[in-house]
Amino acid sequence: MGQTLTLKAADGHSFPAYVAKPAGTPKGGIVVLQEIFGVNSHIRSVADGYAAEGYFVVAPATFHRVKADVELGYTEADMGTGFGFKTAVDGLPEPGVMADIQAAIDHAAVGGSGKVGIVGYCWGGLLTWRSACSLSGLSAAVPYYGGGMTAQPDAARQPKVPVLAHFGDQDHWIPLDTVEAFRQNQPGVEVHVYKANHGFNCDQRGSFDADAARTARERTLAFFARHLG
What we know:
By secondary structure, the protein is an alpha/beta fold. It has a single domain, classed as Rossmann fold. It has six helices and eight strands, in the order E-E-E-H-E-H-H-E-H-E-E-H-E-H.
């Protein structure tokens, strides 16, 4: 359904993005932010799924500033490799990858002919939260199990747009007490906790939970319908 295009950030950095278009007139735009495994087959399928719901979807390669053409699986080795790339990107001088995400938002606004939402998973969930708090052109944000967003200093950020956040109660990467503290300190954020583990949305991972993934997606689509319509 989609194709890979080259986008350019404000600082001149060019990077690939997977773009999926709906069959008819777009309802709006959605930016999909990858996990630490690159814009792999799962992320492309997520993008295609939102396109099938009527959105113009952009999934930028957020590792590209440190490593091109990253497409990993979900083994222990892949996780270690991906975490290394994530650490390298996090260490870039400001604004770093946020400039690429802004370019993806801008492209989604043009292609979607309307409002733009953003959704991200794992590391992409953290970047989604940061985008909601610092970037322009968004109308809604949905982080899934954003590692780090419930810990300081990210938990203290203030979103500029409505946010819906999904977490799992068995996620050893994101302690449940930090999720509850985040809920208390961010009363404007709609927080849902599922009986699931980290990565519950990904049907290529052992932690996939079909019920949690389905419910979270239904809530996400309803949230985008409210704020992007």
